[in-house]
Amino acid sequence: MHTVVCAASYAAKRLGIHSGMPSREAFTICPSLEFVPADQSKYIWTSEQIFDLLKGYGLPLNYASIDEFQLNLSGYSDKNAVSLGKEIKTQIYANFNITASVGIAKNWL
Length: 109
Known about the structure:
Layout: H1 10-14, H2 23-29, H3 40-55, E1 61-65, E2 68-71, H4 78-96
Antiparallel strand pairs: 1-2
Helix pairs in contact: 3-4
């Protein structure tokens, strides 16, 4: 059976392991690597719940992928956008016990 890395932790990424890498290659880099079985239904449910949380901010929202969302903050100053980003990270952790990364840019790209 051919398996690949679906997602890598920050620690694994620092070693050069990345999404899409064959698991055999990942084990060569890190023999103590642990694979966690995927629970797709749980990931989809959590993604939908986070999307609903973000909808609550009343801003234009784009569902980019199962773990990536984009909010339009065009009316926000840089300082307020950073504050909102921190609030969103806090809310995601408080509600789902998972960490999130927030990126802020002038456009969708």
